[in-house]
Amino acid sequence: MNKKITIENAVINFANLAQPSTYDGKPSKYDLTMRFNKDSKAGQVLETAVESILRDNNNPELLDQYDKLAFKDGNNSDYSVNHDHWILKANSNTQVPCYDRNKSLLSLNEIQAKVGRGATVNAIVTLWYQDNQFGQRVNCVLNGVQIVKACNVESFFSNLDYNSDDFSSVDYDKYDSDDF
Fold first, then answer.
1. Going along 26-160, which residue ranges are E strands?
2. Whole-model pTM?
């Protein structure tokens, strides 16, 4: 049984929403990896849904196999920013509708400008159980995204107090002209 779930106030870790990610040099899927607080309602709903899907498919032992679940405990992640959070990776074979706070559909240019690591989103996802020649796992389809707080690259870099005086001069004679 598929489980459709709304996640609120998740923070983007990685996103390919304006164009699909690539795999072996070829376009693959649109995807979103997000993190959210463990005490959030979405975390509780997802945890219960995953357990229910595994129980319905007589496979509760899969819950202990970190690499077989789209929904993961961030404490098992290599990235410290994920610790104390839930992590969810969702993807779609087709372009996912992205909306702003006012529920207006975003253009591809607006998606590229607003979506990035650190942006806050609401997402609608569907969990489903895979049982085929590629194995058994719980996957997640991304159905839609709402940008709550855009990623602001300019403000991120404006907080850095660096300028050209922080660099030393380069002796061009030490390098070939092909290096520049």
1. 26-27, 30-37, 71-73, 85-92, 98-99, 120-132, 135-149
2. 0.79
